[in-house]
Amino acid sequence: MFITNTTFKRGYFVKTKLFFSFIILLFLFTPFISANQRHSYKQYFFQYQNGEILYKGVKYTDNSDNFLNNDNGKFILKFFDCNMIHLKTITIDEPGVIQSDRRSFNQIKGSIIKKNGYTFSITISRKFDPVYVKFFRKADNCDTNYYQQKTTIINQQPEKDKLLFINQVKLNPNKKHKKLFSSINDAIILSHSKFIDNGPDKRRTDIVFIPIDYYDYEMDSFHKTIHNILYNVCWGGWTDKRTFFDASPIKEFKKLFNFHYLDIINFPLDWNKQINCTGDDCKEWLDNYVKNYINTPPDIYVFITKSYPWSSLTSFWYIILRKDACGNTLLRALARSILGGRLYNEFDAEDNYADGKALNKISDKNITIYTEREKIPWKHWISSTTPLPTPNNVHFKNSVGAFEGGYDYKYYYYRPQEKCVLHGDLWDFCKVCREHFTITLLKHWIHPFISATTNTPTSDTPINSEDTPILRFSVTIDAGLLAMFESAEIVWFMDDRKMNNYDGKSSIEIITSDIKAGKHIVKAAIIGQVRGTEGFIRKYIDTNFYYSFNEFEISKGRYRRDR
Amino acid sequence: MKNLIRLTLIFFFISVFLSAETDNPFLSLNFNLGFSFIGQRGNNSEYISSVNPFPLTPSHSVTSVGGNINLRLRKKLILGLNMEYSMNKKLSLIDPSDQDELVVDSIDFYNFFIDLKYMFSLFNLNSFISFGAGNNITKGCDETWATTKKGYKIFLPEIDSRTSPIMVITAGIIFPLSDTLNIFTDASSYYLINEKISMFRISLGLSFTIIDDAREQK
């Protein structure tokens, strides 16, 4: 026992000594390491002369003869990371100095001399590893828009004869860099993943996660955050094991959604301010920005931030979530976005008004200032025996009434039920919010018709009953979405009046002379019950969703002019 | 159309050649302004919903301008070369089913005809009566859409330019103002042979005498 103990002590001493020696050595060598980091510049000379690129004695021949004579024969220098993801483009138009205007690339410097051809001298120092340099001649159809050019180039391999030179430049390997820039111009889309694919984007609701201020080595962390939000239990998870997809009505409509993420490095939080856009213009810009990866404009963007003062922020079509947000924060944000029909917050934490009245006279969806039964928007849910305002006690725990507190205020505003996701509770919406969310999904977000055909003209030309005696309309239904339904039937409407005799038919024929002259709209619709949503809706809705055909017009006939 | 003009001109110049043999050569240029009255077409009983919603085109009048050259062939017989142009007019059509109204332009047309005037004295007035034949030429137009007052669309099909033979009977009176200037008024009845439509026209005009050997002989 004693011997063993002595041996241990000796070994311990030896290991400690070695450890301190290593620390001292590391300390002594640190200046060299950091100096090496600071001066990791490499200089490369490229010479272009008589149709040839020369680099370190290796000759590359340009196949096109008219390179120098072409007015559009500008040079493009492109930088790629180790995954051949495009990082940076410099277009060299005129002889002069190459100077990057991006802070992230301010180590790229060089000069062009036009003397017996072109000579490029380029110095590169960048803390990525490795960096590939490609020499391109600018294609004639290059877009001047930087963003489009950048996104296009990633997906499109350059034509062989345009590619003049490839060289790998290794700079400072295995070192993570610091965040150096915050311009939207420096944001780069690395890759895209449709990680929950329930069908074609066009007919599904597309939710896209985008990282804010993330860098390439942080992408794993970004993916983990998405996983946590969608699949992890939240606080209280030791009693409630449900996750995002277990919450109604997401659970019932799960097949409706496609989820994507885009690995974007350096996407700044204030991107919209930088491009100076507001509202739908910003969405249009963003749709255009991601269109090479997601063809159909996404419906909801979810930005994940590493630091944000609030756990979430919801606008019409975008949501900002903090990295540590839980799935129910996303659920609440979706309910407050256009996806859930823009429900109001039911938090009751604050009381800013001392004058005893509500400033905003709201009585809509899930918030009201009224306690009179007839004025409450969700009166169809309130039992006749429930007192109004409803006391917050155990007797009315599961009742729908008018509970004081909501819209971020403790008093003056009333919410439908004691507990709700929008009130800050875990996974269960109150019945009123669930109804509103469900109706919004049914009415606006399910697109069950794959295609619709008609023989009506697509232009504004009215139909003449002599030339077009019969109008034909037909629709094709998405089988995947139809599977969500317990029962579903196609019905047809003309000018919002149901046409009997056509129920259940996917194609119909209408005799033109039976229709009164003037403008008409034919709609196909589906009446059905989504599985598991029995009792979700008490409000009357005529159909679940429509497919509108183009408006067409029946003319009164023809008149042959004469003297 | 070109053949018609060509034939007319040939006929006219042969007439000029013949008139050279007359004792008293006479040539005058006339200009007139008139109104053409056109009878109704169609009937409300021809109404077919969505096919023929405006079956009745009511009778209407259009403004017309004209001119002719007169050449004496015999003492009381004058050959005339006539041209008239009738300008379009807004026509108001009524749908008999719902009293909806459609306003459309009538179609411009030309009348070209040659007539023989017989001069005589009626109550001491220089009068004439003429018989003529020629062609009515309708201007073509592109197809278009018109909108009724109730907002319904009506298709107006394309119309090709077409020619229809006409017969014309005219009666008129001439008032001499001076040796070379006369004022005249006349009334004409037209019958479009192909289309079986009759028209009526009254006009007032000025006549400029260019050659009158009888006057010189005085």
- Taken from the alpha-carbon principal axes, the silhouette of chain A is globular
- Side by side, the strands of the main sheet of chain B go 1-2-3-6-7-10-11-12
CATH class of the largest domain in chain A, named Alpha Beta
Uncertain regions spanning at least 5 consecutive residues of chain A: 1-11, 29-74, 80-85, 93-109, 114-121, 123-181
How many separate helices of chain A? 8
Assembly state? heterodimer
Structural class of chain B: mainly beta
Biggest sheet of chain B: strands, sense, closure?
8 strands, antiparallel, barrel
Number of helices of chain B: 2
- How many strand elements of chain B? 12
Q: Quote the beta fraction of chain A.
A: 25-35%
CATH architecture of the largest domain in chain A: 3-Layer(aba) Sandwich
Rg of chain B is 21 Å
| Class derived from helix and strand content of chain A | alpha+beta
SSE run of chain B: HEEEEEEEEEEEEH
In helices, the fraction of residues of chain B equals 10-25%
Strand content of chain B: over 45%
Instruction: Report the count of strand segments of chain A.
Output: 30
The level-1 CATH class of chain B: Mainly Beta
Write down the domain tally of chain B. 1
Q: Could you tell me the radius of gyration of chain A in angstroms?
A: 32 Å
